[in-house]
Write a structure and sequence with these properties.
This protein is an alpha/beta fold and 272 residues long. The protein contains seven helices and twelve strands. It is 28% helix and 18% strand.
């Protein structure tokens, strides 16, 4: 896939991560690179399938990207009217809570993009069957796509300093349930899980699992800042060791037939 806008790579050696790596010195340039790829991928999917299934993460790192999509004229043509918006993970709080991932996405994107409300799919995280209900929504929404194309088109992930992604925390129940422990690799099974217990940063979560994430057509991992440098070094060093997935959950993100692309600023890149 080529970018809509050519971006010069900085004089930084990208870490040897699984998948491809895009590095930019300045965070603003990195956001442009990520937004450009997202726009092109959305156009391609609408042209091929008639719609675009987009899954977004919460947290502070991607918010500037969401703002860029709304205010930069280059990205106003993103086909929101053909987009289904999904949430990668959600804390088990109400939407009025500042801890809600959907709250920020709603305020920045949904309210200003023109996406039809019926195509916006928040996780009703306070429901007892939140995981079952959200998985049912996903399956029903993609029912009319031909078999093999019934998957998420684009997933945006982040990475915590502990190596977690989505709400798959190290050694947490939802993570371990997503792993084939004997073969030390992600397994196909439940698409959505409730994650709770002492290994989960409170409050409890509802999250996409490896089964859903690794079925996606394109997975982007956005990582910025020097605070993530040590973790990226561990990920690069352990990328060929499946035994480390329980310790560094981001290592379990390996699209089965899709593309994995990391977007890093220079500050996040390990030295050497």
């Amino acid at each position: 896939m080529s970018d809509l806008i050519p971006f010069a790579q900085p004089n930084v050696t990208p870490p040897a991560l699984p998948g491809s790596v895009t590095v930019q010195h300045e965070t603003e340039d990195l956001l442009d690179a990520a937004a450009s790829d997202l726009l092109l991928h959305a156009f391609n999917c609408v042209r091929a399938f008639g719609d675009f299934h987009l899954a977004l993460s919460g947290g502070s790192t991607p918010l500037p990207l969401y703002q860029r999509l709304m205010i930069d004229p280059k990205y106003r043509e993103l086909p929101w009217n053909r987009t289904h918006l999904w949430i990668v993970d959600e804390r088990r709080v109400g939407f009025e809570s500042e801890l809600s991932n959907f709250r920020a996405i709603d305020e920045i994107l949904v309210e200003h993009s023109g996406i039809p409300r019926e195509q916006v799919h928040p996780i009703m995280a306070l429901q007892d069957d939140a995981d079952v209900a959200y998985e049912r929504q996903i399956r029903e929404s993609m029912f009319f796509r031909e078999k093999g194309q019934d998957r998420l088109d684009y997933v945006l992930l982040g990475m915590g300093t502990d190596g977690h992604t989505a709400s798959l925390f190290p050694h947490s129940p939802a993570l371990l349930d997503s792993l084939d422990v004997e073969r030390r690799q992600p397994q196909v099974g439940k698409l959505i899980a409730i994650n709770a217990g002492p290994k989960v940063t409170p409050p409890d979560r509802v999250t996409m699992t490896y089964a859903l994430l690794n079925g996606a057509r394109f997975v982007a991992v956005l990582v910025t800042g020097a605070g993530k440098r040590a973790t990226l070094a561990k990920v690069a060093a352990g990328k060929d060791d499946p035994a480390l997935m329980a310790e560094l959950p981001i290592l379990g993100v390996r699209p089965r037939v899709g593309e994995l692309r990391w977007y890093l600023d220079a500050a996040a890149c390990p030295e050497g």
